[in-house]
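Colleagues,

Please find the record for the two-part complex below.
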Amino acid sequence: MSDSSESFQFDGFKEIFDNSMTNKISAAVTASLFLLLVVNAVDVMGNNDGVRSVLDGNNSWQVTFDEVIITQTDTVVVADGDTEIRTFTIDETLLDDGYRIGSFRMTITYGETSGVPGDPVDSVFTTIPQSDMNAQWSDENNSLSDSSSDGSDIDLMLRAYPDYDGQMKNITGFNEIQVLENWNMDGYGIGELQIEISVETQSMPFVADNEEEVTITLEIITFKPVAQQ
Amino acid sequence: MAQESLAPVAAITNLILGFITIAMSNRGDSKNSHKSFSALLIGWTFIFLAMYHTVEAILGQYYFETYPTAIDLGLFSYQGIVGADILVLILFGTDTALNILMLVMALHIPKDLGRGKLWNASIIATIAIYCILVPPIIFIGGFKIMALQEFIWVIVGVLWIHTYIRGIVLEHNTGENKYRSVSKASAILLIIWIGWQMVWWLSAFSFLNNEWFVSVLSSQVENPPVWWLFSVNFGWSIGAIAISVLFAGEVFRSVKRGMSVESWIVFGIFFIGFMNWIQDYLLLDAYYSCIEGQCEESSEIFELINYLTSGILIYLIKPLFLVYLMVQFKIVDTSSEQNRNLMRIMILLILLIVSSSIIELIQSLIPIPQMLSGSILAIGIVFFIGWEEKITSQFLSGGSEDDIESITGDGFEDSMLKNTSLVFSFVVFYIIIMAVIFANAGV
């Protein structure tokens, strides 16, 4: 065939199909290919249906929290003008399985202990100083310092787990693991928690009132998240 | 074990090889116009591969990493960042050009399937029309249309598998070596174009590829169309069937006639399939992580195995085997003095690229100091320069008469060869301009 041929000629096509044995093998191979294609396509479509049922299904979840409160108490006598520091050690052994520490609530109670009628109530100043404990130290809902001069209880609060307020949350996600991801982090609230207590006594003349007994109640609020659709 | 991207190396290698091949395509005393056209096809394949890998490297450097599978399956959406969008659209356009080039190559090498001026002209016209129409259709109609182009892989694969089987059968029946040359050329072409899909053959047969694909499906915001789900398997399926046929053919031939270099290459790729299957099996949980658990970051093992298997086949084996094809089958006239110097550059370049890439690969596995790897490379360079004449002669004397005559076909007029280069030059500019326009329009 010369270059000048104007027409289409497919001698090459004819030539490559000139052997019957080759054609039979190729036909079998091509049939296998199409079978593989069809079976694979059906499998992919099945996988896609499974994926879509998750992705396009109900992805709204409600996360609620089961709370368990662990209470520890301590009593300290603080002399007038002194500052006492009490330390609570919190470790994982305190926690039930699956529970994490959400926040700490401290209640400081005291009364006039001189026993003299008419003796005015002392002033108590309390502070939770920042420590190495992994907690939300700069959370705006914290109450890390307070005082009392009328004998009323002092309530302090420190949030340990990010965003934990015990309230139900609406979250979207494809599965329970994804939904609970933010509520299953370890390490928050573990370590040492201190409280500084200072006392200024108020006393009547000729009455010896130079100290005050203060009771610290620490409530460790632990939670376990539960996801429901 | 951080792996350096091989894309920049592949870009430079392919670019130089492209220019050299195009320059050599029309030179030589014993010029055969069909071989000139074949050389042009290979030369422009190098240029488009260079363009693809350059853009891929820039995209990775400044925006995000991309993978060939993501381009082939159209797993992209407009980012709203003009620079990144332009680069991605160029990748789609270049990939389109490479697909049609592969089809045209299958119609011409090793056997010219059609003849006549009209046939040759229609081939060139088809390239032009395809490259002009398909990229805008993809840019407007949605990137997922890219996956339909994998049907070209199926056609090409079936064609080369058939010529391979024919070569093996006729060699066995007649005992003539010329048929081995045909089967050898078909096998090399299959490995060049779809070799990187072959390494997943066992996962394709055991449907583990589809399990991997769940990780892709779970990233799709909308339910993908059925035709796309059907198309995504074209690549793996033709790759699996092709390597199975090559393996069976080479085993049969090895038993009857003994092993050859090509047999070892086929057995190597076949073996990699087992390795990749094990990897797929081990990572099953990770593939389902986004829908059944917490999305897992891409595994380091997956990255490394991909790098050492598909990565090598895409970035290094393609140019290496294309050069081997040209030299072994004398697609360019290496006997002419004009081409000999260019051939030397080509061979030395390939040797250097391969040695530096091997060192890089070793470095990604074992952290050896750069001073040491630099010294090893320097020793290699000295060796190559010292034995340059001998190495070149050995390369050029590789092809037998049967190999040289196995690639036959109709003649092309000089004007058609010029038109071919003009069409491809136009396609390069067209792809870039279209990408700039569409990315700026934010379609």
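Chain B has a mean pLDDT of 86.

Comments are welcome before we finalize the supplementary table.
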